[in-house]
Amino acid sequence: MRKQHSSKATVQFIPSTDDTQGTEGAAQEARRATEAAPSVCAPHASTEVVPRAKRHFKSNAEKRRIVAEADACTRPGEVGLLMRREGIYSSNLCNWRQQIRVADTSALDAKKRGPKPNLELAQTRHMEQLTRKNAQLQSQLDQALLIIDVQKKVSMLMGLTLATSAQGSI
Q1: Average pLDDT of the segment spanning 56-67
Q2: What's the count of helices (H) and strands (E) in the chain, helices before strands?
Q3: What range defines the domain where residue 64 resides?
Q4: Are 93 and 66 in contact (CB under 8 A)?
Q5: Contact 93, 83 (CB under 8 A)
Q6: pLDDT digits (tens, 9 = 90+) for 111-121
Q7: In this structure, are 98 and 123 located in the same domain?
Q8: Residue 151 covered by a domain
Q9: Rounded CA gap, 59 and 61, in Å?
Q10: Mean pLDDT score, 140-160
């Protein structure tokens, strides 16, 4: 035999056993019931602030370890598995290889101690030095040309002619 359930809900009222409270007690109970009851809000979009994912920073030691592991991979798919496990892209691997190569070569270079030269200042000083040298050489040339002119005039006054140099220059 099956029982049929009715669609009407029945509400059962339980009267208070303490009649001394009267209406004030009922109001207090109602107030307590509403304070303790959780507030029901309409379903809205979540107002929770979700933190953004931070970029993972790999130290130089980690980069070297991962590159060494990638270089040790011999079978197909091992490098892809390594990259998925470490959470990196192939471009990271290429960049790290280049960084390691540059770091290794610069570590072997001799480092000059002291302050680094200012290239603009050095170029300006070099230009000034070349300008002074050019002016000095120009004055020496002018002096040499004057001496040659004087020698020509003296030789003409004395009647000496330079046959070989005169014939060679014409």
Answers
A1: 89
A2: 6, 0
A3: 60-107
A4: yes
A5: yes
A6: 788 888 899 99
A7: no
A8: yes
A9: 5
A10: 91
